[in-house]
Amino acid sequence: MEKKYVDFDAAQEIERIVEWIRLWFSANGPQASAVIGLSGGKDSTIVARLLVEALGAGRVVGVLMPDGEQADISDSREVAAFLGIRSFEINIGSAVQALAGEVSKALPLLRDTKINVPPRIRMATLYAVAQSLETGGRVANTCNASEDYIGYSTKYGDAAGDFSPCSDYTVTEMLMIGDALGLPEHLVHKTPSDGLSGMSDEDKIGFTYAVLDRYIRTGLCEDERIKEKIDDMHMKNLHKLQTIPALRRL
Questions:
Q1: Which end of the chain lies in a sparser environment, N or C, as judged by fewer CB atoms within 10 Å?
Q2: 5-243 placed in CATH 2.60.40.420
Q3: How many angstroms from the chain centroid is the CA of residue 151?
Q4: CA-closest candidate to residue 203, choices 216, 214, 191
Q5: Partners of 64 in beta bridges
Q6: What span, in angstroms and rounded, lies between the C-alpha atoms of 87 and 90?
């Protein structure tokens, strides 16, 4: 019998994630704050909310990192205000331009290279903030299982971090968790985009998360072409899993 998502108990999973976060911090930073990049998208919003539930708003630090002008930066600000957490806004535009400019003096930058420079600068920024906090900080990885499965993340960019509380959950399950947490619907159900290529996630990868998630959880995909594409992406990107620490395997 096909496994159905109706079997997923979001409230129960929230309890398990919150308990895991508390245990992880008790062992890896009893006084430390959780540092998280706030993109204004569902994953960072959901993870930030879970961190607040686990540690309290006083131990969660949000970092907003626009690359020059960011049209939806107001969403990131809304998340920080909604959760009542301390936040810093650090524009990475000049750093991205400087690095890309220096590398391009040595060799031409490919399109995907240019796309991946900002998330790697953002990760360096998060660690700079974490290390500058008086009580120290631990950087949250906000990737989900769907992205991890097909490698839809930047190695040593958003795929890095100290702990990864939601890496076991697909996009479909993350949406259910976000709704159960009572987060603003327009943030949880915001069209996912990398904010870099100008395309939605689903347009860029060539299939929907619903199709991917069903395949991950049940092994079923009627479209053989899409199934082959998913399998190919998964195999080619297994190396990225090395950059995702403290994976939750429930």
A1: N
A2: no
A3: 12
A4: 191
A5: 89
A6: 10
